């Protein structure tokens, strides 16, 4: 299978495993989903490197053009609070630092969004702009953006769930400035870009992956027609 189909299949497989073992909690879920993804990638793409949240960082990835970037369980807190649905599995492939392949599984709703079949973003509805925000910790920059846009907020858990809320038409903007890592955003960014959404850092610069330090503190995913306005308000703060 090609890379897009592989990413979707792996995200789906890990998501189904997580659903089956959800009663065992997030620590077990993280470990077992990570083991599944690493084993399958080693078998299917033995020449590629892997960067995973749940595995030691192997510096060999810095010498490779193709690097799979995975988060076996994005939203461990929400996963541990059934029946919450706002948790995800991320599987992405960055080629020379660009996220060209991605799959985000939302296992609790039986959905996998991926670059092999680019999602179609629903048309914007009436009413104020909707911003997907953290359930518990909104940064001052995001609070300023919400106020500047006269927006309503859509609180939810994992980064993948928030990004896919924009892809699915349940939100219009996902802006994050509270600190993340590459595995938090690589797959969501690939899927959002394939769907035609704007993706960038909060200063408008491109998102780059497989860097020596995987810390990637900020992110913007939004409807393209909102991007200039959102970036202007972010820069003004």
TrEMBL record:
<keyword id="KW-0378">Hydrolase</keyword>
<protein>
    <submittedName>
        <fullName>3'(2'),5'-bisphosphate nucleotidase CysQ</fullName>
        <ecNumber>3.1.3.7</ecNumber>
    </submittedName>
</protein>
<dbReference type="Pfam" id="PF00459">
    <property type="entry name" value="Inositol_P"/>
</dbReference>
<dbReference type="GO" id="GO:0008441">
    <property type="term" value="F:3'(2'),5'-bisphosphate nucleotidase activity"/>
</dbReference>
<dbReference type="InterPro" id="IPR000760">
    <property type="entry name" value="Inositol_monophosphatase-like"/>
</dbReference>
<dbReference type="InterPro" id="IPR050725">
    <property type="entry name" value="CysQ/Inositol_MonoPase"/>
</dbReference>
